[in-house]
Design brief:
Oligomer: single chain
Largest sheet: 8 strands, mixed
CATH class of one domain: Alpha Beta
Shape: flat
CATH topology of one domain: Cathepsin B, Chain A
Strand content: 15-25%
Helix content: 25-40%
CATH architecture of one domain: Alpha-Beta Complex
CATH superfamily of one domain: Cysteine proteinases
Number of helices: 30
């Protein structure tokens, strides 16, 4: 099919030879493209929007192909959530609780611990009645033991693939969004569990933690002088082994038990010798538990950075561990076999993921527990190779080769060994009846959910199949051919064929013209369908109005024909007018036309014709959910009305606004500027009037606007007057205008004892007027009230006027002051008098101001200035990175929270020349004094201070937006983003002062707006993967503070 524009041209080609009054039904049907050939599937690749008979590519392909039942629903198979046979149950990760899930699975597979917990009395017995469980409420465990009981029962007999541990996590008060130290969690929870169970009467329950996990060692100190031994007994639940510098687990154990020498300042006080003596100290293992937990200290404190880091070094360990060489009392059974390996994926100590490889004590098979997912290892063998390849190592250390029965890992952080016994483990850990009832109830809910989901899935499939057959059959009947037809929008048909969205009623209002028929321009978004299909659509979905053959609008087609013919004629008339404009106008037969209108008359004519054509293109409401904004259309019309029409550019300004308001444009007056208009011939004007019949007409003899002439004359007189005033003032005060030979307070001139003061702002405004008297109004008042407080006192000291306030004032010679009193209205006289005593050094002269200084207001001003510098909420400071005390300009990481040197204050627009200032009375404002408050003065002074003290950012410098109440640590985080320098590598200073207190605010540290802070980095972070560590350590570590693990 031809492109859309070609179809548009072909539909209206007949208008070139047919006059509007000759339009017939055949022409109307051609304009609406009724008889265009329909497209064929396979030939047409996409839908042709210019052809209303093209019904290809509107979404029908998904219904005409093979049926895929999965496309009829978005419900997963509920059986996917069912526990697999001979498999374990997973645990949901609630955000960052994978470390909790790993330990729960390890403890669950400790059969002795599980059995003891089942024996623990529970309040669940009160919940379970003699005839079953209360149906009206869910069971809520009250203690940690009850939570573990319920979790273990679900893990043992649940039909679900995974269960939710949120009740247990909530009971402990853990933050589900923050990953914690897994080893610390293990210690604290075991301590909490032991304390909870210690209150039980049953010794098998009360002592289970000690029996399973508790061992004993002694700190033995031997005096080298007398040989006396001192023992300190201690219990342990895990051995914390240093792995730094080691490759094998046995080496780590040996170092743990290694003898330590106590010498020098670290000598031991021997009670036998009654003095400090050299001694040796070591740990002796006295007894080992049934379950031996070995904590590999992968997460260590880095003294250089002051934060934790992970040691990603390989450690080798065997599946069989003989502990006899390490215990004090030989002869016992100390052979252990590996039962669990806890893994931390990731290179950072502050992020990553925890999983567990645990051996089933009943079958001897290994399983990988990864939250919801449980994977069985093949061949009853532990397989860690996959885990070790997941994360890239910082170092290029090769994985060492492991022999049979040994393994190597750089991610294992805890090894669990079980004491080998000849007896087989008890395989009959039965869930108590009261817990089994709860599990059965949960399983019943799960089965009900599965049935419900399966039914919903089946209903969706059945509904989809029925819809498929309906659409397939109805789509074949869509083409209209020569039978009666109707129009339906393409958008509605696409939504009907889109299963993901519900089908709404048909809405054709947006396609109607002003005559409530189908607009010809909307045919590109409409499709012609058979009356049979339309009847079915309207009966099932409703809507309207129905667009039958009677909806073809003859009025719109006739109007479009007229406009198209005018557009074609416009090209010929454009050439004719151009030729007529070349000829000179003779006599008084010409007409005035604006030059701007002549340059754009063709475009204006086209726009006017398009507007006439578009008047019929109005919308009545919405189409399939899209509504028109009436307010926007009103605003657009308003803007169009404000634009000048043809020949309105030579109307006088004041009459133009009046007559545009009342729509009497033909009665407007001619402007006085002949440069904006041109005389054209009567023939040219006649052609132009055909396109702009309402344009203002000005024959060549038409007089210009009398009011404009008067205003022009007055303007010329005022301009001459202003030039004369400016010239007189410039002649009277030449040095002040040229800023030459100005007095200075710090170097008082010898030829005078009096100097007068005016505002620097007054001088600047006066100079603007003198330079451009035609554009600016004269400055008539000095306006010294801006320099005084509300009490009439001076706001400056003599010392401040020689330094920081010198840019706010201008010094005037006495002779200049006499002239200024004649030229300007002086509201307040401000002067400085020098008084010299006889026989006194001139440098010790006194200076007296009139009026005198107001101490209270001066102090208030200074306090306000200091407060503004210390209590800012958003200000810009600058950071320079230095190397060897030299500023370095180089590119770094992309800046975050960084702005350009232009702050909000820089964005203030300067006042245009001649704009009135409230502090100065100008010629049109009279001579009345204007009062200024203390607050207004402070604001005025701030403005001047900003202009004079603003820092200029140099290339390569970083500008940061900060507030006075943010801490130095927060600033370091911003600097880290800007320069890729970690906070602990930053050395910051300002004006030679070191900034070291991370908790102090920028206001207390003296960091004010526009400050420049020097940054010296110890070493840049080369490993950008470790930036995650930096982000984590910037926030204070709370650990398990406030949780149930610490008794809260």
């Amino acid at each position: 099919m031809a492109p859309r524009l070609q179809l548009e041209k072909a539909a209206w080609r007949w208008a070139e030879t047919v006059r509007p009054e000759e339009v017939s039904q055949e022409h109307i049907e051609t304009a609406y493209r009724i008889w265009l050939e329909p497209c064929i599937r396979g030939v047409c690749r996409r839908n042709c929007k210019g052809n209303p008979n093209c019904l290809v590519g509107i979404g029908e392909h998904i219904w005409l192909g093979e049926i895929d039942e999965n496309s009829f629903h978005n419900i997963d198979d509920p059986n996917c959530e069912r526990r697999k046979k001979n498999s374990f149950v997973g645990l949901t990760n609630l955000g960052a609780t994978c470390y909790v899930n790993t330990f729960l699975q390890v403890w669950f597979l400790n059969l002795e611990l599980r059995q003891a917990l089942y024996l623990c009395p529970s309040t669940c017995n009160e919940y379970v009645m003699g005839d079953g469980i209360h149906e009206e409420k869910d069971y809520e465990p009250k203690t940690i033991c009850e939570h573990l009981q319920y979790l273990f029962a679900l893990l043992q007999n649940s039909n679900r693939r995974y269960i939710d541990p949120s009740g247990f996590v909530k009971a402990l008060g853990l933050d589900t969004g923050q990953q914690q130290d897994a080893q610390e969690f293990s210690k604290l929870f075991m301590s909490l569990l032991e304390d909870t169970l210690s209150k039980q009467k049953n010794p098998d329950v009360r002592n289970i933690v000690q029996q399973q996990f508790c061992g004993e060692y002694a700190y033995v100190t031997v005096c080298n002088q007398c040989g006396r031994e001192s023992k300190l007994l201690s219990k342990f639940y895990e051995l914390e082994l240093n792995i730094q510098g080691h490759k094998q687990l046995t080496d780590c154990i040996s170092e743990f038990l290694k003898e330590e020498k106590l010498e020098g300042d670290n000598r031991y006080f021997c009670e036998n010798c009654q003095s400090k003596q050299n001694a040796t100290r070591k740990i002796r293992l006295l007894s080992l538990p049934c379950t031996l937990n070995l904590q590999l200290m992968r997460f260590v404190f880095d003294r250089q950075t002051g934060h934790k880091k992970k040691l990603n070094t390989y450690i080798g360990f065997s599946e069989i561990l003989d502990m006899e060489p390490y215990v004090e009392h030989k002869g016992g059974s100390y052979v252990y076999e590996l039962s669990a390996v806890l893994i931390h994926r990731g290179v950072s100590a502050y992020s990553g993921h925890y999983i567990a490889h645990v051996k089933d004590p009943q079958s001897g098979e290994w399983y990988k527990f990864n939250d919801e997912d449980i994977e069985k290892m093949e061949g009853k063998k532990l397989q860690l190779g996959i885990e070790e390849d997941l994360e890239p190592s910082k170092s290029q250390t090769r994985k060492p080769k492991c022999g049979k029965g040994t393994h190597c890992s750089r991610n294992a952080y805890m090894l669990v060994y079980r004491l080998q016994t000849q007896e087989k483990p008890n395989t009959t850990v039965q869930v108590p009846a009261f817990l089994q009832e709860l599990v059965d109830r949960d399983n019943s809910k799960f089965e009900e959910w599965c049935i419900e989901m399966a039914e919903m899935r089946k209903q969706s499939v059945d509904k989809g199949k029925a819809k498929h057959e309906e659409v397939k059959e109805l789509y074949q009947r869509l083409p209209a051919g020569a039978e009666p037809y109707e129009f339906v929008s393409l958008e509605w048909l696409q939504k009907w064929l889109d299963e993901s969205t519900p089908t709404k009623p048909i809405d054709n209002h947006a396609c109607l013209c002003a005559h409530d028929k189908l607009h010809p321009d909307k045919i590109s978004i409409m499709k012609r369908i058979s009356e049979y299909a339309a009847d079915i659509f309207y009966s099932r979905y409703g809507g309207g109005p129905r667009l039958t053959v009677k909806a073809l609008c003859k009025e719109c087609v006739v109007e479009r024909c007229r406009v198209l013919r005018l557009k074609n004629q416009l090209n010929e008339d454009y050439k004719t007018v151009n030729n007529l404009l070349k000829a000179a106008v003779k006599g008084t037969d010409g007409f005035w036309v604006g030059k701007s209108s002549l340059r754009s008359w063709r475009q204006l004519a086209l726009e006017q014709l398009d507007e006439q054509d578009g008047d019929t293109d109005h919308s009545n409401g919405k189409m399939n959910g899209s509504t028109l904004n009436k307010d926007e259309s009103k605003e657009d019309r308003k803007e169009e009305e404000e634009e000048l029409n043809f020949n309105e550019d030579i109307l006088c300004p004041h009459v133009l606004s009046f007559f545009k308001f009342f729509f009497f444009l033909n009665s407007g007056e001619l402007c006085i500027s002949e440069n904006e208009r041109r005389l054209v011939s009567k023939e040219a004007w006649s052609k132009l009037r055909q396109y702009f019949p309402k344009a203002p007409e000005f024959p060549s003899y038409k007089e210009c606007c009398s009011q404009c002439k008067i205003l022009e004359r007055e303007g010329e007189e005022n301009e001459a007057l202003h030039k004369m005033i400016a010239n007189e003032q410039k002649t009277s005060l030449p040095n002040l205008f040229q800023d030459k030979n100005r007095p200075c307070l710090s170097n008082w001139p010898e030829d005078t004892d009096v100097l007068y003061i005016v505002s620097q702002f007054f001088v600047e405004e006066w100079r603007k007027f003198v330079r451009k008297p035609a554009r600016c109004s004269p400055v008539s008042s000095v306006g010294n009230s801006a320099l005084l407080c509300p009490h009439g006192g001076l706001m400056f000291t003599f010392a401040s006027m020689t330094k920081e306030d010198s840019k706010l004032i201008a010094l005037i010679w006495p002779s200049e002051w006499q002239m200024m009193q004649k030229l300007f209205v002086v509201d307040h006289v401000i002067k400085i008098t020098r008084i010299e005593a006889e026989d006194v050094n001139p440098s010790e002269a006194q200076y007296i101001s009139e009026p005198k200084l107001c101490p209270e207001c001066r102090e208030g001003l200074l306090c306000q200035q200091q407060r503004d510098l210390r209590e800012y909420t958003q200000a810009t400071i600058y950071v320079h990175k230095v190397v060897d005390n030299k500023k370095v300009m180089k590119d770094s990481a992309p800046e975050l929270n960084v702005s350009s040197s232009e702050t909000e204050e820089d964005k203030e627009e300067a006042k245009p020349d001649g704009e009135k200032d409230p502090d100065f009375n100008q010629s049109n404002g009279g001579t009345k004094r204007q009062k200024i408050s203390h607050q207004n003065y402070i604001a005025y002074q701030k403005q001047v201070i900003r202009r004079s003290m603003r820092h200029r950012k140099v290339r390569g410098e970083k500008a940061l937006l900060v507030s006075a109440n943010q801490t130095l640590k927060e600033l370091k985080i911003q600097i880290m983003h800007a320069f890729s320098v970690a906070p602990f590598d930053q050395n910051l200073s300002i004006d030679g002062k070191i900034l070291s207190d991370d908790c102090a605010t920028l206001g207390t540290l003296g960091v004010i707006p526009e400050s420049v802070i020097l940054l010296k980095a110890d070493e840049p972070i080369a490993d950008y993967a470790a930036m995650d560590d930096v982000m984590q350590v910037c926030m204070p570590e709370e650990g398990f503070k406030g949780t149930g693990l610490l008794g809260h």
